[in-house]
Amino acid sequence: MANLSEVVRQWISDHERTQSYLARRAGLNESYVSMILSGQRKPGRRAIGKLELAMGLPPGTLEAAQAQANGSVNGEVAK
User: Fold this and answer.
1) Which residues pair with 50 in a beta bridge?
2) Does 5 or 66 have the greater pLDDT score?
3) Interior/surface letters 3-24, b for 16+ CB within 10 angstroms, e for the rest
4) pTM, two decimal places
5) Which of 9, 44, 11, 12 is nearest to 28 (CA)?
């Protein structure tokens, strides 16, 4: 599975949308979405939920992508 920013970028590309469109649809600041996509910020659960809803993804999809990118399983860091 791709990391969170890759999943979001792919959705934007597949749906021929912009970061600005997604930010507005999710009710998030455009600069915040930009920082998420660039890896400068890691979104919290509330922001992840808003993105999933705006993107039409099942709950937990982006959180799982973020957890995998961080090397964790079920929210716990793999050892």
Assistant:
1) none
2) 5
3) bbbebbeebbeeeeeebeebbe
4) 0.83
5) 44
